Amino acid sequence: MSKLSKLKADRRSILKAGTAAAGLLAMPSILMAEEKKPKEIIVRAWGGAWGDALKAGVADPFTAATGIKVRMDFTEDNEIKPKIWAAVDQGRVPPIHVNWDTTTNATISALRGATVDLSDLSNLKGLLPSAKPKGLEGYPLVNTYAYVYVCAYRPEAFPDGPPKSWNVLIDPKFKGRVALYDDGIGFNPISVLVGGGKLSDIPDHMEKGYEFYRKLKANKPLLGEDADFTTWFQKGEIDVACTISVNAREAQQKGINVKWTVPQEGCKVDTDGLWVPKGLPGNEEYWAKEFVNFALTREAQQKWCSLLGLPPVYPGIEPPKDLVGDPSYPTKPEDFKKLISIPSPVLVKNQPIWFAKFNEIFQG
Amino acid sequence: MQSRNSKNIPASWKLLDLAERLLVTIWPARLNKYVGWGFLLPALLLVGILLIGLGYIIEYSFHELDLATYRLKAEYSLTNYHTFINRPVYLHILGRTMLASIIVTIITLILAFPYAYMLVRTRSAMMRKFLLIALFLPFFIGQVVRAYGWLIILGKQGFVNSILTSIGLPELDLIYNFQAIVFGLIQYMLPFAILLIIPAITSISEDFELASEGLGANWVSTFRHVVLPMAKPGLVGSFVVVFTLTMTDFAMPEILGGGTSDFIANAIYDSFFQISNPGLGAALSVLLVAIGSIIVTAIFYFAGTGTLGIRQKTR
Predict the structure, then answer these.
(1) Which one, out of A101, A164, A353, B217, has a CA that is 20 to 30 A from the CA of B106?
(2) pLDDT tens-digit readout, A235-264
(3) Interface predicted TM-score (ipTM) of this complex, two decimals
(4) What is the 3-state secondary structure of chain A?
């Protein structure tokens, strides 16, 4: 047998073997795409108007497109975090497939190495720059929209028009009828400005903010979570609050007379995002990423964010009719001038310190 | 003959013989003195698992959080315990928790004792049924639901304030304060206390009370010198249970406190979940367990374990 014939035979064998190998290699992806769909994927979400919007805007259309059911897990975002971390550290399957999270919390999870890189998602192209997490390599999370911590108020309590300054929170007239988040989130940087400080004081010189908190404590504020604000407005417990516009809008949609404004000192603007925890079986991770990818499509972004009343990261989407020109729905550069954005790396490093100080003042 | 006899033995007997032989193989007669321990084994295992968890918590408490990675640093340190001592807020919260525990325990026991006494001594079956239903009904309603119930009743536009404003009186701040938490806790703890006092009162024969009265004592003296001392095991048990449950309660301060009247359990929760610092949360947990254990030990030391019906060694 000549060397050539030997080569021919070998080449034929190699081609056969190669075809077989390619077939074998292709199998998992074929199965993954067509057959290895999980029965359901679990998405952690916030309840109330938040969960309803995700269901209608993303989860239901995703199920319609793929046949995969989406189950919402309403575990509090701070509570799911250590559960996922423990699962990842111990090599267990995490309790959820997709975490809808604040960018700060998601960044902390990324720093712990608990998140899957999403850089290969096809729908990342063309999104606004705010979709990219700051201070992190690649896309361990993807931001999906921005939101504003507005000054929500009951118009009956403000017959002369909306509050012009955050100082309204320390007005004795509203003693016991003002509310904040129970860790000060959304108000920590604003407290410095309303207390007489400058933006450059954040994060190293927060004392003026703490001084404002001490005055605020004397006004006996209520401290709670998202759902509490809607309830408090509904039950007439409060007149004014620093809360995310979504909660105020939800209260309004429930027929409660609530309005919101951006006072002269400004409001904090932040972002939420989606991320996929490490440790999922291959096919489930694939479909979890597909869910995130689906949430970044124009259609999903439009419906989800319109229901929330928040500006999405997909460019060119018009605001809902009731929010056109609303200061809590920034669309133009000048809209952002009154909004204070603190970069995620700064928040990650300083937020625990601010929370602790807030706690010290209000619990002390 | 023998084989015919063995054929006549019912199958169930054979099974029992087999089971007996199996038992003798697994548990020979010489081990019979350990039967009691055998029954205790599951409980001991559970306590053991709890102790392993506590061991981990103690270990975590000696590691500081690294804010760059949000993981506990490998080296051991007392940073978390320094934080507890150096930040007055934690001492303040601990003080608030202890104060509430004492107030709730005392008021609960004062309210529980006559209820339990009435329930045991009443001659009316109807009254006994009513008291039993009133006692057990709250058990079907969870703590969180009950707390929300109080929000509806005591809120700004709640039942009480509606009545006050309807008769021209001003609204009162009845919730989101320390008093509301104490009120909610008393209502929550009352059934526990009553259930623990009932057996103690049941074990006091009515003859003692009749004898006391027969010897000229009025009801106050009988209560003070006969009923109360004899009911001491139930009272001490109730005290320990109500005090420790209050000291570790989370839901009532969370819901009825309005965010400004946290107990130590809320501070632990915040450390673990809100600021993602398991080291600090573990340190606070260790301190809570230590303080609780010291208090319970002190109660048993002064009241004596015999008050719970546990036999003490006699010389």
Answers:
(1) B217
(2) 888 999 999 999 999 889 989 999 999 999
(3) 0.75
(4) CCHHHHHHHHHHHHHHHHHHHHHHHHHHHHHHHHHCCCCEEEEECCCCHHHHHHHHHHHHHHHHHHCCEEEEECCCHHHHHHHHHHHHHCCCCCCCCEEEEEHHHHHHHHHCCCECCCCCCHHHCCCCHHHCCCCCCCCCCEEEEEEEEEEEECHHHCCCCCCCCHHHHHCHHHCCCEEEECCCCCCHHHHHHHCCCCHHHCCCCCHHHHHHHHHHHHCCCEEECHHHHHHHHHCCCCCEEEEEHHHHHHHHHCCCCCEEECCCCCEEEEEEEEECECCCCHHHHHHHHHHHHHHCCHHHHHHHHHHHCCCECCCCCCCCHHHCCCCCCCCCHHHHCCEEECCHHHHHHHHHHHHHHHHHHHHC
